[in-house]
Structure to design on (228 residues):
């Protein structure tokens, strides 16, 4: 059996789905429930842009336009992040891979690390829902908890339920024009990955049109089975 040769391999989960599908929301819930680390290439890139690093300078304009950052750059930041000690708890990939080249690079990288993908989970939503979700999204600037004006408001307006901070942020790329481009990029370049993982027998599909807690329950069943 696979597990006999890699008894300590940490679980690796992939969350697939268009922007606004709920990947980040669900990844944070999985992180809390299963102790794995959420690894969002979007968050890593935004941090690089904010810090003004060389990577950030190269990525900024593409991100603002709603395109995909180059495979080479994203694969490099993911490789560095996976090498950090906390990833030994297992990882939930959120927003990576987004192209076939990235998926193949991930297979190679995990192979080198003696790991493999335990499950690729596609969060399925329609495009209209995605636009509504993205246009109401905001995040706590202190702890990163995600909210939505309608679907997940804070209990007290403007105050984070988790940490009490009042520093709420909205993403600059969550605007109508950029969202249309991001959706286009998703259908052209990332959508085909659903078939890629289906062919490998590692795909599960989840109805992500359901409320957040219902999606979390369905996801938990798939994840518990995959990492058992
Ligand atoms: P992604 O990481 O896939 O881009 P997010 O997790 O940031 O998406 O979710 C986008 C927005 O939609 C957030 O404001 C979040 O609170 C909200 N949201 C996430 N899942 C659901 C859901 N199942 N129903 C309604 N709103 C949701
Ligand atoms: P996200 O936070 O996942 O919505 O990503 C925000 C933006 O970061 C995307 O619109 C892309 O420009 C860029 N990005 C994030 N992850 C990737 C990736 N895996 N490949 C290419 N670009 C990415």
């Amino acid at each position: 059996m696979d597990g006999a040769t890699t008894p300590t391999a940490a679980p690796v989960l992939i969350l697939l789905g268009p922007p606004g599908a709920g990947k980040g929301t669900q990844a944070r819930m999985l992180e809390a429930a299963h102790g794995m680390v959420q690894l969002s290439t979007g968050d890593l890139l935004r941090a690089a842009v904010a810090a003004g690093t060389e990577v950030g300078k190269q990525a900024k304009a593409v991100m603002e336009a709603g395109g995909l950052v180059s495979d080479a750059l994203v694969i490099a930041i993911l490789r560095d992040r996976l090498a950090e000690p906390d990833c030994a708890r297992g990882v939930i990939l959120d927003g990576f891979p987004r192209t076939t080249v990235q998926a193949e690079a991930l297979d190679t990288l995990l192979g080198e690390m003696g790991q493999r993908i335990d499950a690729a989970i596609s969060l399925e939503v329609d495009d209209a829902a995605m636009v509504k979700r993205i246009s109401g999204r905001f995040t706590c600037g202190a702890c990163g908890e995600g909210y939505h004006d309608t679907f997940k408001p804070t209990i007290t307006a403007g105050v984070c339920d988790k940490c009490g901070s009042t520093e709420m942020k909205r993403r600059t790329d969550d605007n109508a024009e950029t969202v249309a481009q991001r959706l286009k990029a998703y259908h052209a370049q990332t959508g085909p990955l659903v078939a890629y993982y289906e062919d490998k027998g590692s795909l599960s599909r989840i109805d992500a049109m359901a409320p957040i807690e219902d999606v979390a329950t369905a996801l938990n069943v798939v994840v518990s089975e995959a990492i058992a």
Residues 212-227 form the longest helix (16 residues).
